[in-house]
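Q: Convert this sequence to structure tokens.
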Amino acid sequence: MSFVADASASLPWAFEDEATPWSESLLNRVQAGEEIFVPSHWPLEIVNTLLMARRRGRITATQVQEFIQDLNSFPLKIHPPNAPVQWPAILAIADQHRLTAYDAAYLILAKQVNLPLATLDKDLAAAAKAEGVQLL
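A:
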């Protein structure tokens, strides 16, 4: 089964100290060929976190490049940027559940493609439950 993943669900794959049985099970599913659906801002969230981690000495430049290569081998389905016509819906979900617009975009994508959402973000998970979106 495919799923929508936010950055919080994907980034533990790059950091050994953040890996959990749950994050590793997601990684195993992806490595087995399950598709990950993500909004267009997901790659920038990932790259920015890797950049900040490298600058802080948490990971090396080589580890960043290896992780990016791994991501490029995964079956990612990156959805196009949200059109202006979708902005009111993103704003409404963000306001209703006190989310960032970025997190609201993950929730809206999960609703649009009717797939479960993988997240470690407690606020996003609560909003997903309230919106009837299945969580992994």
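The first helix runs from residue 7 to 10.
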